[in-house]
Amino acid sequence: MSCRDRLKAKIGNIFNYFTRVMPEPATELHYKTPFELLVAVVLSAQCTDKRVNLITPALFDRFPDASSMAEAEPEQIYNYIRSCTYPNSKARYLSGISRSLVDRFSGELPESIADLESLPGVGRKTANVVASVLFGKEVMPVDTHVFRVSARLGLTRNAGSPEEAERQLISIIPPSMLPVAHHWLILHGRYTCKARRPLCDRCGITLWCDYFSSIEESG
């Protein structure tokens, strides 16, 4: 069996497990509209979803759409998001995003990843998350969880950046599986394959995990 065939078999086994334990994975960010999701994803950069979900109800009550937020100054937005990471920068981004949406897209979120990335403060990962969750695009957003878990499992090899990890994952995961695989890897990393102390004793995919194999060999 070739290396690529073994990798495909590994992915099949891992995804079969995730299908059983997480049949309908989804983002843990709370939102009701496309605009709210974009705002929540921007706020979630280097911040927990739990913290974002505490912040956004009051924020969305005051600024329910791009038009209302576009009329606000960054300082006004800051008052609602001050407890998240980098609130000054994120307030400026949200102000710029809202104004750009109003000026260029009639206040609606564009479906194109390129258009999403053209918004102030919206990078590749954020654009991919929004495109995947809202529009079902076959993309692979790579955050710290996806980057770590895919490397530990051996789904990526020596990826030096999230972009390289994304390229490797897209090359081996069936396109139709990319949106759900993104959530599986995030949730597995958040609750089981943690950064400092992975809970290998509670993990159902150690049989196919390179990281666990290396621990077993060294122990």
Blueprint of the fold:
Layout: H1 3-21, H2 34-43, H3 49-62, H4 66-70, H5 74-81, H6 87-105, H7 113-117, H8 124-135, H9 144-153, H10 162-172, H11 178-191, H12 210-218
Helix pairs in contact: 2-8, 5-6, 9-10, 9-11
Brief summary of the model shown:
With 219 residues, the protein is mainly alpha-helical. It contains 12 helices and no strands.
Overall residue-averaged pLDDT value = 95
What is the CATH H-level superfamily of the largest domain?
A: Helix-hairpin-Helix base-excision DNA repair enzymes (C-terminal)
User: Radius of gyration from the CA trace?
Assistant: 19 Å
Q: What is the succession of H and E elements?
A: HHHHHHHHHHHH
Count of spatially separate domains: 2
By DSSP (H or I, 4+ residues per run), the number of helices equals 12
What is the CATH first-level class name of the largest domain? Answer: Mainly Alpha
Q: CA-to-CA gap between the ends? A: 28 Å
| Percent range for β-strand residues | under 5%
How much helicity do the residues have?
55-70%
CATH architecture of the largest domain: Orthogonal Bundle
SSE-based structural type: mainly alpha
List the defining traits of the structure above:
219 residues; mainly alpha; Endonuclease III, domain 1
